[in-house]
Amino acid sequence: MKTVRKLIYKEVITSIALVALGFLSLFFFFDLVDELQSIGKSNGLPGEGNTYLLGHALLYVTLQLPNHLYELLPISVLIGTIFVMARLAQSSEFTILRTSGLGPWRALRLLLAMGGMFVVLSFAVGDYIAPVADRGAQLLKAKYQGRITIGQTGAWLKEKQTYSNSVVNVRALSSDNEMQGVRIFEFDNKGLVVSTTEAASAQFLEDDSWLLKQTQRTDFQIRPSLDSVNKAAESANVSISRAEEQRWPTDISAEMVSVALLKPDRMATYDLFNYVQHLKANGQTAQRYEIEFWKKVFYPLSCLVMVMLALPFAYLHFRSGSVTSYVFGGVMIGISFFLLNNVFGYIGNLQNWQPWLAAATPGLLYGAVSMGAFGWLVLRR
């Protein structure tokens, strides 16, 4: 059995590696062509070191490859495994393996064990390598082309504290991980504005706080009154203070700001989980980020579904000498899975589905199809 395992694993892993390399080369070319229009542009600061050059574009595109690998790994596993299984069936090698004792369930366990290795690889790339590389790519582009921001107002975050609630607006994130255009609105337990703070920039400190720079703080002190709220507002005292630096204690971490400014599907699972808990604790909608969290959990498991879909191709009887049509069918199945995975994420967000259900449905559907094909084509025939 070791000889059979070594034969199949060597062929399948080599085929998957070649397919993944082909896909990555294609995406590298497309990304580089897309970046050519940005070469020669600068961030507006004087000096040659602030111009976006071809070397920076190549580095940026290279840093995007881990995220492409994470997205394309299940499709590569499917296409590579289908190619090897179909080729073994075409050359009658798989028939010889079957007569040597390789039954359907043993073959399935063999492929599932190999799929488990790609599950671990997919999780490692998507949770550790891709987030770091993507963050480096965004900071590189921000250094030479401007700041990282979304929309015209930036990111909005909310935090509940012991005696007040805070709403924070971060307009942009610079290349050195410094926040720019920070505004903080503090409310009391009755929902009345207590103070507003504006800072030109802010840095993350290690003691769960921010260091605000060039701040202007406006405090609203409302005198106690038995009259209506309007009268109380009329008797409010407004005081304005300015400071070069000011420390603001908060539990909003750098990862939370990154999630708000960057795409959530590019973040690590643990960071997404913390951000979802932060949103729930502050009474904010977390549906979109919960779906992305569960997609990060279930997506690596799709490698197991892909090898299950590929196994029935080993039991097909070829009348012609080409396996091209079957490989093309594998490409179509992989693309449809990728599209369905994204579509169910949007539908689940719009229809307010359970986040885990919206994320797991594509894998469950394709898993049911693969088991149906395995039962009909392999076991019954």
Would you kindly provide a written description of the structure presented here, covering whatever features stand out?
- The protein is α+β, with helices and mostly antiparallel strands.
- It folds into two domains: 2-146 and 288-380, no CATH class; 155-261, no CATH class.
- It has eleven helices and six strands.
- It has helices spanning 2-35, 54-90, 93-99, 104-145, 229-234, 254-261, 269-281, 287-298, 302-310, 324-351, 355-380; strands at residues 155-160, 165-173, 179-187, 193-205, 209-222, 236-249.
- It has a six-stranded antiparallel β-sheet with strand order 1-2-3-4-5-6.
- A hairpin with a 4-residue loop joins strand 1 and strand 2.
- Helix 2 (54-90) runs parallel beside helix 9 (302-310).
- The radius of gyration is 27 Å and the shape is elongated.
- The two termini are 24 Å apart.
- The model has no long low-confidence stretch (mean pLDDT 83).
Query: Helix fraction?
Result: 55-70%
Strand content: 15-25%
Strand order of the largest sheet: 1-2-3-4-5-6
- Described by the principal axes of the CA atoms, the overall outline is elongated
**What is the number of E strands?**
6
- Alpha-carbon Rg, integer: 27 Å
Low-confidence stretches: none
Spatial gap, N to C terminus: 24 Å
Helices and strands, in order, run as HHHHEEEEEHEHHHHHH
Structurally, how many domains make up the residues? 2
| Count of discrete alpha- or pi-helical segments spanning 4 or more residues | 11
Largest sheet: 6 strands, antiparallel
Structural class designation? alpha+beta
The average pLDDT is: 83
